[in-house]
Amino acid sequence: MDAHENDGNGVADDALPPPPPVPENVVPLKADNGTEQALEPVKKKVLRVPMARRGLATKGQKVQLLTNHFKVNVSNVDGHFFHYSVALFYEDGKPVDGKGVGRKVLDRVHETYDSELAGKEFAYDGEKSLFTVGALPRNKLEFTVVLEDVTSNRNNGNASPGSPGEKDRKRMRRQYQSKTFKVELSFAAKIPMQAIAQALRGQESENSQEALRVLDIILRQHAAKQGCLLVRQSFFHNDVKNFADVGGGVLGCRGFHSSFRTSQGGLSLNIDVSTTMIIQPGPVVDFLMSNQNVKDPKFIDWAKAKRTLKNLRVKTSPTNTEYKITGLSEKCCGEQMFSLKQKSKNENGEPEMLEVTVYDYFVNYRKIDLRYSGDLPCINVGRPKRPTYFPLELCSLVSLQRYTKALSTLQRSSLVEKSRQKPQERMRVLSDALKLNNYDAEPLLRSCGISINSGFTQVEGRVLPAPRLKVGNGEDFFPRNGRWNFNNKKLVDPTKIEKWAVVNFSARCDIRNLVRDLIKCGGLKGIRIDEPFDCFEESPQNRRAPPLVRVEKLFESIQSKLPGAPQFLLCLLPERKNSDLYGPWKRKCLADYGIVTQCIAPMRVNDQYLTNVLLKINAKLGGLNSMLAVEHPPSIPMVSKVPTIILGMDVSHGSPGQSDIPSIAAVVSSRRWPSISRYRASVRTQSPKVEMIDSLFKKVSDTEDEGIMRELLLDFYVSSGKQKPDQIIIFRDGVSESQFNQVLNIELDQIIEACKFLDEKWCPKFLVIIAQKNHHTKFFQPGSPDNVPPGTVIDNKVCHPRNNDFYMCAHAGMIGTTRPTHYHVLYDEIGFSADDLQELVHSLSYVYQRSTTAISVVAPICYAHLAATQVGQFMKFEDHSETSSSHGGTGVTSAGAVPVPQLPKLQANVCDSMFFC
C-alpha cells in the first residue's frame, strides 16, 4: 500500500502530515501480519544526522568582535509563499530554450497584466520557478506578451528559423523585429513562512530551506533588475571601478555575495565581497592581442582565437545591436564573399544577386571606413550554414561576460594582490553595499515584513592561548602571535643525510655555494649532512626536449654513475612555479625508484630559504621539526589515553574547464601514536567532479580489501606498537552542507566496513568534523586596523541554531582579511567537551612541519591537500586528450562517465613517509 493513500482508519491522507522522505538506501520493511514469524527481521539502517550542540566552550580570553552578518527582522510569519512553475513558448508553440530571455518576458508580463496578477509582486529565478506572497487568483494562468528586439541576455539565436541573416538590408531592420511569447504559470506548492521561524529554532525542514531560497531569489532578482551579472549568490555591477586587469584579456570583477542564514541570533543577511573573472570588454581585437600576449593583430593565432571567442557576445557599430559570436570567416575580410540582393530583377522577376566581399560591402555600400580589418578574418554571428559576417573592428565585446577557464599562475597572483582588502576597508565596502542595495525599498521583502539592520552584528569571541612547542635538546618555547623561528634552535628529531646527490635541470645557480650553505645551515639545526656524491647537470641538447624525455635522460646519467640508490636527491628546477618537470620527476623518484626528493627553484637563497627547505627535507626523511609539548609526555585530553588515529580527507578536482581530468582523493593518517605530528598519505583517482571518496573500502574478494582505509589502519597498527586505534577522528575538507549526510552515511559506513573487514569484533568510536574555508563569514576587531588575533574562536550568535559548529582563526592573518575556518562537528561518539575539542583543533594547526607558523586549517587537511595535488601532477603528461571545449564546456557529458586511469603506486620505502611535505 502506498504511504500516501488513505491509511485504513477512514482518515483521508491530507489530514495527516506528509511522510518523511525515504532515503535512497533504506530497505522497506514488510508489514508483519503474524504469519511470517520465522523470517529473520530485516535490520533497518538507521541514518545518522548531524549532532546537536552539547554546550558552549569557555576557555580563552574574551574579545568583542564584529561580523558581516546583518540582523533581519521578520514580522509576517503567518503568510505563505506560493510557488508556480513557469513555462515559456514561442508563438508556434516551441518551448524557449535560451536562458536569459525569461526575465525580460516576465518583466513584460508584470507590466502588462497587473490586474490578472491581482497587483502582486513576484520573485522569479530566471529559469522555471516563480514565487509570490499569497496566492495568485488562479492555479493556472496563461499570458501572451510581445517583446521588441529580443536578443536574449546570452543571445542563443532564439529567432525562429529563417529570420536572422536574411542578408543585409534585413540585417539593418532586424533589430526592430518583435516577437511573441506565451507564458504559462501553474501552481506547484505552497511554503509556510512559519518554516523560517522553525529554522530559527533549529528545526530545519525541506520547507525552511525552500523559504530561505525564496528570500535569496528575491535578492537575486533585485540585483538582476539593476543589470548585474549573477553568479550563484553573488552579483556584479557593470562599473569600471570594480574591474582589475589581471592580464591575458581577463579582468577580476569585484561584486558582492549575499545570502540569508539562520543562526543562534536569529535570521541574518550575510554580505561579503566576492570576485569573479570576466572578459575584458571593448574592441575584440584588443582582447585577442591581450589574450594571446601579442603586440600586433598579424601575430594572432586565429584557430585559438576562434575557440576563445565562440559564444561570447558582441555589440556591432554603428547600429549597436548585440549578437552572439558563432565563429570566424574562413577567409579574411577583403576576400570573404557573400551574395548581396540587388534592387534590379532578373528575367524570372527575382532580385539579382551580386557577389561582393564583406570589406567592399561595408566600405562602398555602407560607407563605413575600415582601418585594419581587410586582412583579418570576419566575425560570424549567423549560423554555420547561413553566416552573417562583420569586420573585426566593428565588433566590441559586451561587458560582464564570465571567463570560466582556469587562471595561469601569474593571473592568479595578480588577482590575489589586487583583490586584497584590509579589514577596515572591507567593512567600509560592505557598509556601502548595504546602503547601495537599499533592500528596504524592495516591495517583496516589504510584503514579507522583512527589514534589515544596517549595523554589523556584535559577537563575543575567545582567544585561545598558543600551545607550547618542543624543539631539540628538550627545549620548550611558546609561539608569539602564531609564529616562531628556529634561530639558534635545533630540530626536535633531526635526520642524517648520508647518500645523496644534486640534480640540476639547467637552473642558473652557484651549486657549490648552495651545497656548502645547506650543509652549514643543516648543522646548526642538528641535521648532519655529508658531502653529496655528485652534481648531475642536464646536458644542453636535452633542454628543448619534452619533460618526460628530460627526466628519463637525466635519470639514465644518474643510474650510470651512482653506486646504489641514493637516500635523497636535491633537484634544481629552472622555473619558479608550475615547472613541467615537477610531476614527471616526482613520479620517477617516488613511484619508480622510491627515492625521497626535494625540488627547489633557487632564486634568492638566504638562511631563511635554506631553513624552510631543510624543514621539508627533514620531515620527508622521517625526522620531526617541532612537536606539541602535550605529545611528550602524552597529555592530550581524550587522545593520549586511548589509541587514536587522526585522518585528514580531501578531494581535488580538475580546473573548471576540464571535465575529463580525474578527481583525486587523498586521505592522510597519523602514525606512531601517541604522536599527532607524524602522518602518511594514501591517494587514489576517481571519477571527475565526484566529491564523495569512493575507495575507502574496496572489497575484491572475501579476504582482500584494496581500499584506502585498510592501508592506513595497518600502518597505524605497525607503527604504534601493534595497537588498533580505538578512536578514529576524521577531518573532512571541501564538503558543502547539502553533502553532510553523505559523509555521515556513505563515507563513514565505508570506513566502518573497512574496520570490520580487518576484525569483525572491533568497534572503534568515531568523531567526524567538516572543515569549510569557502564561506562568507568574516570577523573584525571594532576600531582596530588589525585582523583578529590568532587562536580566535567563535561559537555563538552567528553559528547554527542547533548543530555543533564553530569558527576558528588559528593563524595570524598578515595580509588582507583573515578567512576563518568553519568547523562542523557532525558526529562524536568519543564524548569531547566543547573546550577539549576546540583545543585539539587549535593544537592541530600548530603541527604543520613545513612552516613555523600556525596554519588556518588543521594540518591533516593541509597534508591531504598537498598529497592530492602532488600525486595529481604524476598524471600530467599521461595520454588523456584535452577534450575540454573552449568555454567552460565539458568534454564528457556527465560526471563519472569515464573510466578513470589508476595512479602508479609509491614504492614501499616512501609510501609511509611525509613525501608530500
Automatic annotation (TrEMBL):
Disordered: annotated segments: 1-27, 152-174
Residue ranges of coiled coil: none
Compositional bias (Polar residues): 152-161
Statement: the UniProt record of this protein carries the keyword Ribonucleoprotein: yes
Record-level GO BP terms: defense response to virus; regulation of translation; regulatory ncRNA-mediated gene silencing
Source domain of life: Eukaryota
InterPro entries with a match to the protein in the record: ArgoL1 (IPR014811), ArgoL2 (IPR032472), Argonaute_Mid_dom (IPR032473), Argonaute_N (IPR032474), PAZ_dom (IPR003100), PAZ_dom_sf (IPR036085), Piwi (IPR003165), Piwi_ago-like (IPR045246)
GO molecular function, one term: RNA binding
Ranges where the Piwi domain occurs: 568-876
One Gene Ontology term, aspect cellular component: ribonucleoprotein complex
Keywords tagged on the record: Repressor, Ribonucleoprotein, RNA-binding, RNA-mediated gene silencing, Translation regulation
Residue stretches making up the PAZ domain: 283-399
Family indicated by similarity: Belongs to the argonaute family. Ago subfamily.
Name of the molecule in the record: Argonaute 4
